[in-house]
Amino acid sequence: MSKAGQSILAGAREALAHAKGEREGCVAHAPDDPDVKSIRTRLGLSQTEFAARFGFDPRAVENWEQGRRRPERPARAYLRVIERNPKAVEEALRQPAQ
Q1: Which of residues 61 and 26 earns the better pLDDT score?
Q2: Among 36, 54, 57, 63, which residue's beta carbon has the most beta carbons within 10 A?
Q3: 19-56 burial string, b = 16+ CB within 10 Å, else e?
Q4: Which three-class secondary structure state does DSSP give residue 70?
Q5: How far apart are CA 33 and CA 45, in angstroms?
Q6: Taking Cα atoms as reference points, which of 27, 29, 7, 11 lies closest to residue 81?
Q7: CA–CA dist 75, 91 (Å, integer)
Q8: What mean pLDDT comes out for the span 4-12?
Q9: Residue burial 65-93, b: 16+ Cβ < 10 Å; e: rest
Q10: d(CA 21, CA 73)
Q11: Torsion sign across C-alpha atoms 73, 76, 81, 87
């Protein structure tokens, strides 16, 4: 089975388990098309700075902004969190003092 087929099947199984009450909590929905450039420019960061601050490959950021690639689902969810609360992300990623 293809990777896409496996992903669809896993999602269907998860939805069924949730519908049966076997799973608690909510189902996360990643945005379809995050505007990476808008998020980045609102934060006042260059592509390189944005990538470094949030752990992205700089080429990925460039490709997303140019429309050559689309962030995968986990990256879209992460970008949504960055968009809504960048300070919380920065705090969570900060290295503890030693």
Answers
A1: 61
A2: 36
A3: eeeeeeeeeeeeeeebebeebbeeeebebeebbebbeb
A4: coil
A5: 20
A6: 29
A7: 18
A8: 73
A9: beeeeebeeebbbbbbebbeebeebeeee
A10: 25
A11: positive
